[in-house]
Design a protein that fits this description.
The complex is a heterodimer of chains A (300) and B (307). Chain A contains 14 helices and no strands. In chain A, 69% of the residues lie in helices and 0% in strands. Chain A has a domain at 94-249: MetI-like (MetI-like fold, Orthogonal Bundle). With 300 residues, chain A is mainly alpha-helical. Chain B has helices spanning 2-12, 17-44, 67-73, 76-107, 115-123, 130-141, 160-186, 192-198, 203-214, 216-231, 235-240, 253-263, 267-296, and strands at residues 46-50, 59-63. In chain B, helix 3 packs across helix 13 and helix 12 packs antiparallel against helix 13. The chains are: A mainly alpha (300), B mainly alpha (307).
Chain lengths: 300, 307
């Protein structure tokens, strides 16, 4: 259901039976231990970056790696990063939110309209359109980044916000999910009743369809938000002026400059930490709205 | 679903709304998928010729036929980059799917503890962009800063680097796939296991024989997504490149395309490579999608909804 799936009620008396207690508690130890190992594997890089960002430049290479520094390292590092190139880092952060927020929102609106139309109407070219969209799911957008650049360069609109957002508005997977979700959550009888009452088709889409599809649309939005937030190649080829970089491209360029200058490592480390925080916060705060079961198209 | 559409469809067919609703998607599809594809195809049949003879220096664009494609086919560096991508994929795909399945099954184990914490922790890397993940791991690998023995073990060594790159991709992908599989497991009615329990099957046997079989569609879907991601390998090696001598500028196909287009400024060759690469990816993903569907009875991306 959500990531935070509620605990299933105890299945049967057989599992709770208290016979053979020692053996059962032994079998539960191993799964827990393996899960904790997995958690450690996933958390260690983030924890290390948190510790490393508390260190000053000289401490970074001299002190024990897992010991945080309690000096003014973190504050200094953030101040250094904020003043780097007159605060361009915060520009990157805003750009990332702009690209992912606007792109995710419009892509979701387009997906919702298309998915609803395919699920709820029979019109000419419907199956051709849907099959084309399915093919689009299988053709990764990243492969198109360089051709998209070549075309937009021809038209002369590269190095703009539009050049990063526009190519990411068509989201075949989102349309596919919206189609399933519209079919499952918007009952035809409700639309028929609306028609009897003389409601316009548009009103039924905007007032009934969109409202009933809302939980699915949040999932589609979050998925596309993450795709755009995580995208690197497209902004990397499209944007050349550093005040239009998203975080991914910005930190990468910082690393490239810093590859020969160990003094920039502290900046990259601190920037990496600060860039991870907002999305994790977004995820934790939205996790109850976000329905992973939709990802496989499985609906009850 | 199919019947309800046809029953009502005729009446609603008078409305122009469905066409208006799909119009934005069609325009975007034409402008940002079809047009770039067509333009890349067009560019791929051209070449820049450095003008000799009467005009002296300077260059002009001429029709080149299949010359660029011949260059692509005979480009050993491209084939090597393809091999390196496959090698990394040979680690990432099984490792991601199997680890995700393992964690999902463990989360579903009745008496496992701390599952909520483990689930969140393992899922979190999904929210970390590939480039940022690579920066994180890059510092863990880098001898000067490594807390995981980079001083003794060369994570950027010529063969170790495949594992290092694959590890970053697995780290980022396991959690998402785990949650997809775990969600499928939670959707199964618990009564299903009763019969197996009464027959004296252990939790392990139930997990391997019953649960895995029942969530095959989710496993197939995850496999397809992981294969697709493996074919697009770019962010991790490209970001590690400044740190590692073992990674060249043309290490994987997408890096090769990028280098052709932006370092060597040969957009015609880059266009031809893009066309070949996109066609190859589409072919592979269609085949994998079909295989997943037939082997696992998948309701995956290309599954039942297409009918």
């Amino acid at each position: 259901m959500t990531i935070d799936t509620p605990t299933r009620p105890i299945a049967s008396p057989v599992t709770v039976a208290r016979t053979g207690r020692p053996r059962r508690s032994r079998t539960a130890l191993l799964p827990t231990a393996v899960l904790l190992l997995g958690a450690v594997y996933c958390l260690v890089p983030t924890l290390w970056i948190l510790i490393a960002s508390t260190k000053s430049r000289s401490e970074l290479f001299s002190t024990a790696t897992y010991l945080p520094s309690f000096g003014s390292g973190l504050v200094d590092n953030i101040a250094d990063l904020s003043s780097y190139d007159s605060g361009v880092f915060w520009h990157w952060m805003l750009n990332s939110f702009l690209y992912a927020g606007v792109g995710g929102f419009v892509a979701t609106a387009v997906s919702a309209a298309t998915g609803y139309a395919i699920a709820k109407y029979r019109f000419r070219g419907r199956s051709l359109l849907f099959n084309t969209i399915l093919a689009g799911v299988l053709l990764p957008q990243v492969v198109l980044a360089v051709p998209q650049y070549l075309l937009l360069a021809r038209v002369g609109i590269t190095d703009s916000y539009a050049a990063v957002i526009l190519p990411q508005l068509f989201n075949p997977y989102g349309i596919y999910l919206c189609r399933i979700y519209a079919a499952a959550s918007v009952p035809d009888s409700l639309l028929d009743a609306g028609r009897m009452d003389g409601a316009s088709e548009w009103r039924m889409f905007s007032a009934i369809g969109l409202r009933l599809m809302a939980p699915g649309l949040i999932t589609v939005f979050l998925l596309q938000f993450i795709v755009i937030w995580n995208n690197f190649l497209l902004p990397f080829v499209m944007v050349t002026s550093d005040d239009k970089f998203p975080l991914t491209v910005g930190l990468y360029s910082l690393l490239r400059h810093g590859a020969n200058q160990a003094s920039l490592y502290s900046l990259v480390i601190t920037g990496t930490l600060l860039s991870v925080i907002p999305v994790i916060a977004l995820f934790l705060s939205l996790q109850r709205y976000w329905r992973i079961d939709l990802v496989t198209g499985g609906l009850k | 679903m199919a019947t309800s559409i046809s029953r009502r469809g005729r009446r609603a067919g008078h409305s122009r709304l469905p066409y208006l609703l799909v119009l934005p998607a069609i325009l975007l599809l034409l402008l940002f998928v079809v047009a770039p594809g067509g333009y890349a195809l067009f560019l791929s049949f051209q070449q820049r010729k450095v003008g000799g003879g009467l005009l002296g220096s300077g260059s002009r664009t001429v029709f080149a036929g299949l010359d660029n494609y011949s260059t692509v086919i005979h480009d050993t560096e491209l084939w090597h980059s393809l091999l390196r991508m496959l090698l990394v994929g040979a680690i990432t795909v099984p490792a991601t799917v199997l680890l995700a399945l393992l964690f999902a099954l463990l989360l579903d184990t009745a008496r496992a503890r701390l599952t909520r914490f483990a689930r969140l922790a393992i899922f979190l890397p999904y929210a970390v962009p590939g480039v940022i993940a690579t920066l994180l791991w890059g510092f863990l690998y880098l001898p000067a800063t490594s807390p995981i023995g980079g001083q003794h073990l060369d994570y950027f060594g010529s063969s170790m680097v495949y594992v290092s790159v694959a590890n970053i991709a697995v780290w980022g992908a396991v959690g998402f796939n785990m949650v997809v599989m775990y969600t499928s497991l939670r959707a199964l009615p618990p009564e299903i296991y009763e019969a197996a329990r009464i027959d004296g099957a252990s939790e392990l046997q139930i997990a391997l024989r019953v649960k895995v079989a029942l969530i095959r569609p989710a496993i197939a879907m995850c496999t397809l997504f992981t294969v697709l991601a493996a074919l697009q390998l770019f962010n991790e090696p490209n970001t590690l490149q400044p740190l590692s001598n073992a990674i060249s500028l043309t290490w994987v196909p997408l890096m090769k395309i990028y280098t052709d287009a932006f370092v060597d400024s040969d957009i015609h060759l880059a266009a031809a490579t893009s066309v070949v690469f996109a066609a190859g990816i589409l072919a592979v993903s269609v085949v994998v999608g079909r295989l997943a569907q037939t082997w696992w009875g998948a309701a995956g991306a290309a599954g039942k909804e297409g009918r």
